[in-house]
Amino acid sequence: MSNRSLSFYRSYLGSKTMSFLRRRKVADSSKLRISNLSFEKEDDKKEQYKSPQRRSYSSKKWSCWDNCCWFIGVIGSAWWFLLFFYNAMPDSIPQYVTMAITGPLPDPPGVKLRKEGLTANHPVVLVPGIVTGGLELWEGRQCAEGLLGKRLWGGSFGEFYKRPLCWLEHISLDNETGFDPPGIRVRPVSGLVAADYFARGYFVWAVTIANLAHIGYEEKSLYMAAYDWRLSFQNTEVRDQSLSRIKSNIELLVATHGGKKVVVVPHSMGVQYFLHFMKWVETPAPRGGGGGSDWCARHIKAVMNVGAPFLGSPKSIALHFSIEVRDIANLRAQAPGFLDKDVFGLQTFKHLMRMFRTWDATFSMVPKGGETIWGGLDWSPEIDTFDDSTKKRKNNSTRNTGQNTKRHMCNTKGVNYGRLILFGKEWSEIHSSKFERADFKNVSKADEIANSSNCDIWLEYHEMGKKAIKAVADHKVYTAGSILDLLHYVAPKLMARGASHFSYGIADNLDDPKYEHYKYWSNPLETKLPNAPDMEIFSLYGVGLSTERGYIYKVATPSNCNIPFQIDTSVDGDSEDSCLKGGVFSGDGDETVPVISAGFMCAKGWRGKTRFNPSGIRTYIREYNHAPPANLLEGRGTQSASHVDLLGNFALIEDVLRVAAGASALDSKLRSDDNDLVSLLHGFYSVNHLLVVFVGNLHVD
Fold this sequence. Notes:
Elements: H1 3-49, H2 64-88, H3 92-102, H4 109-115, E1 124-127, E2 135-139, E3 151-153, H5 158-162, H6 164-171, E4 185-188, E5 197-199, E6 202-203, H7 206-214, E7 222-224, H8 233-240, H9 242-256, E8 262-266, H10 269-282, H11 295-299, E9 300-306, H12 314-322, H13 326-334, E10 342-343, E11 346-347, H14 348-356, H15 370-374, H16 388-396, E12 419-422, H17 466-474, E13 477-479, H18 483-490, H19 492-499, E14 536-543, E15 545-555, E16 565-567, E17 580-581, E18 584-589, H20 595-605, E19 618-625, H21 650-660, H22 688-694
Parallel strand pairs: 1-7, 1-8, 8-9, 9-14, 12-15, 14-19
Antiparallel strand pairs: 2-3, 2-4, 5-6, 10-11, 12-13, 15-16, 15-18, 17-18
Helix pairs in contact: 4-7, 18-19
């Protein structure tokens, strides 16, 4: 390259370099100015944020919404973590933790009896009660697509949360027929899994089954007599042949176990269902099973009834009348109006009442025996009352064993359990001669509430006018003798269907041909026990828990399609320990079934040879005093006397296992430390003070 060319190249490169440096300098200075401007703006913002009203704050304060979201997030995260940890860790860890806190755990009854040498002997039949058995879908409407063969009742109840109205449509029965609505088929789950757990972690029969397994039982020697607990008892045979299936399975168990008879363990409403079965199986076909009058004698060793509502439960009245019990009424009081509103398309109370009123089996739980059993306007079997004639009957009785007849859980001052429903607290303490009651039965129901024709949920209440509602309240007091008249008045179509399947009286002459009708078969006061003198019948029930016995109601504010009657939760007794709290009268029992219903038949009605027990089947009662769990790690406890938790009571399970293993009720081994069946032949505990009242009222011989 020439010198001239080189010089030109150098001068060109230098000019470009200087130009680049000048541009860079300008850019840097611009960035600096922008940066300074940004800092100035930020400072202005900070100054602006620090206004006179909020000058003391250096950061934004959390709102209530932020706190709630944070709290819910923490609780939810902790819950899911603990749930994952609980399911992931070995089963031995919870047991180790429990033992570290409480000391060594007692052996479960099955393990204990296996060490004593007891083994499986008689086959066992388990009969679940109302709502505890699973139901699954076999045909449904379009909204139930994808649910074929899945559980609608029991398990996780996931479909209820996903599509509540569709779920309610499928779980309800037809108002006219008492069967499935057209296009829907819901059937009971079969096998032991039908009622081992009601929902995840909530056992029903699982603990009993596990302990039976400890002494050698397995599925071939156990049978869960599952049935659709929504249907009337006879309709379970009409639709599903459930009674025939029970008969066939019992016959199979006896045949495959060398002729050994079965031990039947019914629970709750299953007690009434099996009582119906025993009458059905000996009735000639086609009305019955055609097994003959000696079928029970040939196939059944013992019937061990658990939490038996032989004579019904007052809870059933409240549920039919206003779809309330104590817990629901308290919830309603804490959130006024919430359960009555259309929440997410679900008018909670009205839909629940409509669903419940289609389940015909619930009529079996209405109290039986009228005022003779449950008490009248001025007397009740549990306590001393106004009527001097009651005291006279007590003094003339030969059944009083001298035991304490005033064992009460609460203060019964001003309480008369004979009055099952009252409209106003004042009527609970006044003698019946001092107040008048209006007759409601002849009051016209024609003056319908305005806009009642717009009701989309059929309850029959929308057919009641204001005069009719007032007449019901003006009657003031309802006993077991008038409660059926009340239900017939407020829900005539409902009760017409119920009355065709169940009866609630006391038979004068059991040889009357009318008692051959199936509607009498589940009422122990209107049917005879089978001709099986070697069979044993037990009533095993819990005591020591507050159990609903009566209710104080008020008339609700009239509105379109509203349920016009509500439990008056504002009413309490005069003392802190009163049996009247939140509008509910409480007595002794297992939280669901009062002692009078669970114990009377085995303690008196069937004791010895009576007209209800002509063959003299031996009967026994056993009471289990409630003891709460010692700590949270015990779950629902091993000494609970609560209606369902009783199936996990170790003392009860031990009694069942001993009888199943071949023991008799008169066997000296069938004992517990504080109470045994042999002693109960001579003296009764909670039920004792009830018996003396009935001698003058109910002739059972």
